[in-house]
Design brief:
Length: 216
Amino acid sequence: MNKPTGPKTQRHRYTHKQLQSMSDNNERVKLTVVGLSYNPLQSGAFGLLLAEEGGRHRIPIVIGSAEAQSIAINLEGVVTPRPMTHDLFCSFAQAFGVSLIEVYIYKFEDGIFSSEMKFTDGTREVTIDSRTSDAVAIAIRCEAPIYTTRQIIELAGTVTDDDEDAKGEGGETTQSKQRDLNDLTDDELQSLMDRYIEEENYEEAARISRILKDRG
């Protein structure tokens, strides 16, 4: 008596070129933080610009104002009166001997970037899911590398010239926002920056800090 058999499983045979293409798409690409810009098309939104290390691709990511301020004050070296949330997270992890190995932006779907953070305590490694904005804010504080895939670079990235790095998608250039501030004296800028820090307006404080640093 013949036993009934199910449908045969068809095995896919990939050519060497197809396998190479799949490998290239999953190639990890290191990213650096270029800067931030305000997005006037979306209230309370900012553009975080990440750059391909050693390349010309840029990835603009829309983030909220709180995360933008957190990233801005760290990039500009602004010292806040009390630790911010991402500072507290890093201090907590370091106190218990946990370090951040890397941030990996592993998916881009429907305009949303998905990221994960890999930690170690020296004995084991743990990977947790995270919003990309939070992951970047913590990575720059812990001096951890940020990676993505070549496929995401191709899907979400743009190729720009160096002089366009200060621009975010749909945002103003940092230079245009600094024109009025550049007319102020160093003392006036310092006073204004102190006031912004008191008001916890760290994004504006970071912008002034950058101007003062440029003046030397």
